[in-house]
Amino acid sequence: EAPTKQGLKGWTGFFDRFGRQVVQFGGDAYDMLEFAGRLVVALGRTVVHPRRLRLTPLVAMMQDAGVNALPIVFVMTFFIGAVIALVGTNLLTTLGVEVFTVQLVGVAILREFGVVIAAILLSGRSASSFAAQIGSMRMNQETDAMQVMGVDRFDALVIPRVLAALLMMPLMTFCADIGGIAGGLLVSWATIDISPVFFIQRTLETVSITHFWIGMSKAPFLALVIASAGCRHGLMVGGDVQSLGRNVTSAVVQSVFMVIMFDAIFAVLFMVLDL
Fold it and tell me: Could you give the dihedral angle defined by the CA atoms of residues 121, 123, 127 and 128, in that order, rounded to the nearest 10 degrees?
């Protein structure tokens, strides 16, 4: 009887934990939808009344989230492009069509890797930064003071960060595309003796500009998802340090997960549309 009771207790504990996780997931989804609705209203209000926009924090956030991230974005995608070219060269040389490495690098970087690497770096750098900045203000009760003074928290804290991410993400994606193609060009030149001039010429001839626009079209949507996750978790911080650490971690994990998930959805959508 004792082992049976213990086994039953274990199963009860499992279902209890599972049920709690489901309820918590539902609560998070509801909070996310509520935040998205408030964000849309705040963005619409800013469009109708542009004077509500605070330009100084917007420019500061654009520099912090976008301009300062360009070197690391370029370096990361440079090595990604180099790896793609190296793997492609090894595989395609055995088939005798190593010249197709150019198309492989062009399509992979412009369509997928450029925007995804830029978005993941934005998640790591900016989502955590947004959550930590807003969270520390919550801990110091600065947000409560703003509310007492009649300052809208969305206008002051969320809108500048979201707009900065929206404006800088296409620039980061473009920089990532350049870095990835440069990495592929260098490896192709070193391994299969494809000259830079021929590489660029063949890229322009064989890789459609549609791939570039498909990659760029994902950038604003992913930026919106990342900035929203960072700001939402920042506003969820309580009064203790543990809450700050937990929400900063959740912001990064959630934004990276959403980037991968929405990129997969976009890939299926573009495939159905035959683009």
Answer: -70
Output Rg (C-alpha) for the chain, integer angstroms: 23
In the numeric block, which tokens belong to residue 234? 């920042």
Cα distances from 246 to residues 32, 34, 128, 132, 215, in angstroms, run 17, 21, 11, 10, 32
Of 253, 262, 261, residue with least CA distance to 127: 253
Q: Looking at this protein, which amino acid is placed at residue 196?
A: P
Determine the straight-line distance between the first and last CA of the chain, rounded to whole angstroms: 63
| AA identity, residue 168 | M
Q: How many CB atoms lie within 10 A of CB 166?
A: 18
- Asked whether 78 and 135 are in contact (CB, 8 A), the reply is no
Model pLDDT for residues 65-124, shown as the tens digit of each residue: 888 888 999 999 999 999 999 988 888 888 878 888 888 888 999 988 899 999 999 898
Token pair belonging to 74? 């370029």
Q: Using a cut of 0.85, tell me whether the model's pTM lies above it.
A: no
